[in-house]
Design brief:
Layout: E1 3-6, E2 21-23, E3 42-47, E4 63-65, E5 68-73, E6 78-85, E7 88-92, E8 104-112, E9 122-125, E10 133-136, E11 142-145, E12 155-157, E13 174-180, E14 184-189, E15 192-199, H1 209-216, E16 221-224, E17 233-245, H2 250-253, E18 269-271, E19 288-290, E20 295-304, E21 313-319, E22 330-335, E23 340-342, E24 352-353, H3 360-369, E25 373-382, E26 385-393, E27 399-407, E28 415-421, E29 424-428, E30 434-438, E31 445-446, E32 462-465, E33 475-482, E34 493-498, E35 515-520, E36 525-527, E37 536-538, H4 545-549, E38 552-561, E39 564-572, E40 582-587, E41 593-599, E42 603-611
Antiparallel strand pairs: 1-15, 2-32, 3-17, 4-7, 5-6, 6-17, 7-16, 8-13, 8-17, 9-10, 9-16, 10-11, 11-12, 13-14, 14-15, 18-29, 19-28, 20-25, 20-29, 20-30, 21-22, 21-28, 22-23, 24-27, 25-26, 26-27, 30-42, 31-42, 32-41, 33-38, 33-42, 34-35, 34-41, 35-36, 37-40, 38-39, 39-40
Length: 622
């Protein structure tokens, strides 16, 4: 058995490669899909540990064990439950005998006094040690164990002896939420997505998450702390335990110490020291490898010491080798202050700009304005010619645009781009950093702009792949999902995977491929004998799904290892809020495969089709 696992941690240096080709577009008639009854959220229990004469201490609990006490916590300004030694609190399980249609949620405040990574935080079980148990720990370790059954039918994910997640830190209050579904789980820590797991082995002798949900609704007790009475652990405190039937809402898992949403800050990729102390040629970005006739694009926030005109971003384009390597040489280096150098093809006369600076006062304003400026930078390869355009938009509205072009080799070889800082500091935006094909908004639509395209009439280009696609640098469709905001759940994007190219059922394409699967935006699909709906994991609120997807910006990341394909959709509403996770796995995509998009009564405005080195950071916060 293999349970897939992800931890949202920063990865190291990433290299980009791009090897897809456009082919002729594909599908199968959409099977009838009516409106399914959507499971609704229901609060099954809340425990705030505030007691009075009308509510005697522990009257809402079934039993307690030493040492279990209620104490006042000044940082939360409330009473909290404090456990030490062999302390525990037991609750009659409110999920017992309740129908869990698509999941269960558990959320609470917790503070541990040490990094006891194996101590259970919450447990489900019976009153004896010989029965089944389910618990999870500060490491995000999830354990389900039933004595006497095959070991492969048990679950032990994120065991700290082999995998330390760093999910919680000691001595600090954290808000922990765990969402269970039929196909996996998702932890949220302080309002941010953290450790997750999903089912990848569907055999009858492997663990199934439906078994875990069945146990959650059958176990008679929930234990705050361990269900193994008498076992001593380090101290831990709890507050505001919440138990939710089916799917939690964002307000359930996104909490701060004031009770409101967490004040999370968008995650950027740093280059240099944040105090702008990095000297010249001592701090660099990752490398970005750019194949022939491709585009590199990024956005970043520029920070400067302000001492000199050149203490800002510096862009380097080189041969496809590491700095200091035997084949390393620079085509050119371009600075933000309209200055550069390079090989024999470099020419300063190829620099153009809109700065309009003609005095020392103008450059003084430039040095000031570049602090915090948002820079949009694109490097386009067309044959041997590389063209760079960088536009800096400053906080006062001033815009500086700089362009440069130069021949770089014969145009057939890979080149590398990277940034260097000099008494400066950059924050690269993961959402805007990619290598591939870039399109102007409105120039590459899938589906009519008025949302009139019927089923199986509108298609993107088809992109063929024959090898693996790294999950560190996945292939991504990036587009705006447009629809009326009032239609059905399925009137959004659809992804089709084929054996390469379009199938004969796609109108006017002349394809002959077979379909592996068709996957809809609303977590529904169909396909060949390898397709399994259990590969779908989602945490959507379908009460708001249609409106959430109206104008949503979507990054659909696709990776492949052998025959296992993984789709990970990162979707941001028009108001800027990221939707919950949506992933899909398919184990049957060996050999050549084709990928393309279609839409029904919707229109997809494709912005780029590319490889994203920081895809795992999209939608993440610091």
């Amino acid at each position: 058995m293999k349970i897939s696992r992800s931890l949202l941690a920063i990865v190291g240096c990433m290299f980009l490669s791009m090897s897809f080709v456009s082919c002729d577009p594909f599908g199968q008639d959409d099977p009838e899909a009516g409106n399914q009854t959507n499971p609704t959220r229901q609060v099954m229990g809340t425990y705030d540990f505030e007691y009075s004469s009308d509510k005697p201490e522990f009257s809402d609990l079934d039993s307690t064990g030493n040492v279990c006490e209620v104490v006042k916590d000044d940082s939360l300004s409330s009473n909290v439950l404090h456990l030490k030694d062999a302390g525990y609190a037991r609750i009659i399980n409110p999920f017992n005998s309740v129908k869990l249609q698509n999941g269960a949620g558990i959320a609470f405040w917790v503070k541990t006094d040490s990094m006891d990574l194996t101590r259970p935080l919450i447990s489900f079980g019976y009153a004896n040690a010989d029965s089944a148990t389910f618990y999870f720990t500060p490491n995000g370790q999830i354990v389900y164990r039933k004595p006497g059954q095959l070991t492969s039918l048990n679950l032990d994910d994120n065991d700290p002896s082999t995998y330390r997640t760093g999910m919680l830190s000691k001595g600090v209050w954290h808000y922990v939420a765990l969402q269970l579904t039929k196909t996996g789980y998702q932890f949220y820590i302080d309002g941010k997505r953290s450790v997750s797991g999903s089912q990848s082995d569907k055999s009858s002798t492997s663990f199934q998450y439906t078994t875990l949900l069945d146990f959650v609704k059958s176990a008679p007790y929930i234990y705050i702390g361990t269900d193994t009475v008498g076992i001593k652990h380090h101290e831990v405190s709890y507050d505001d335990l919440l138990l939710v039937r089916n799917q939690m809402e964002e307000s359930d898992w996104n909490k701060s110490k004031t009770g409101g949403p967490s004040s999370a800050v968008k995650l950027y990729i740093p280059v240099g020291s944040s105090d702008c102390s990095s000297a010249w040629w001592t701090a660099f970005s990752d490398y970005f490898t750019i194949p022939a006739n491709s585009t590199f694009h990024t956005q970043f926030i520029n920070h400067t010491s302000g001492a000199n005109n050149w203490n800002n971003w510096n862009f380097v384009l080189s041969t496809d080798d590491d700095r200091g390597g035997s084949n390393y040489s620079e085509y050119f280096v371009l600075r933000s202050d309209l200055y550069g150098w390079g090989n024999s093809d470099y020419s300063a006369s190829n620099i153009s700009n809109s700065y309009g600076i003609s005095s020392d006062a103008g450059w003084a304003a430039f040095r000031k304005n570049m602090e915090g400026a948002l820079v949009d930078l694109t490097l386009t390869r067309s044959g041997a010619t590389c063209t760079l355009t960088a536009t800096a938009t400053c906080s006062d509205g001033t815009v500086y645009t700089e362009s440069y072009h130069q021949n770089c080799g014969d145009g057939k070889q890979n080149v590398r781009a990277f940034f260097a800082v000099d008494a400066s500091y950059l924050q690269i935006d993961p959402e805007q950093t990619y290598v591939g094909s870039k399109y102007n908004s409105g120039s590459y639509l899938v589906g009519n702009a008025d949302y009139s395209s019927a089923w199986w009439t509108a298609f993107s280009d088809c992109y063929n792949f024959s090898g693996n696609i790294s999950s560190d640098n996945p292939f991504v469709f990036h587009f705006i999902n447009n629809q009326t905001g009032k239609a059905s759940n399925w009137n959004n994007w659809l992804l089709v995977c084929s054996t390469g190219g379009y199938s004969s059922s796609v109108p006017n394409k002349g394809g002959t491929a077979a379909e592996h699967f068709v996957l809809r935006a609303d977590a529904y699909g169909w396909g060949d004998s390898s397709y399994d709906a259990k590969g779908i994991t989602n945490f959507f609120n379908f009460d708001t799904f249609v409106s959430d997807m109206h104008g949503a910006e979507c990054w659909m990341g696709i990776s492949r290892s052998g025959s296992l394909l993984t789709m990970d959709a990162r979707e941001k509403t028009a108001s800027g809020k990221f939707l919950p996770s949506y992933t899909f796995t398919y184990n049957g995509a060996s050999g050549t495969m084709g990928l393309f998009l279609t839409a029904e009564l919707a229109s997809l405005d494709i912005l780029d089709v590319a490889y994203y080195p920081y895809f795992s950071k999209i939608g993440k916060t610091e």
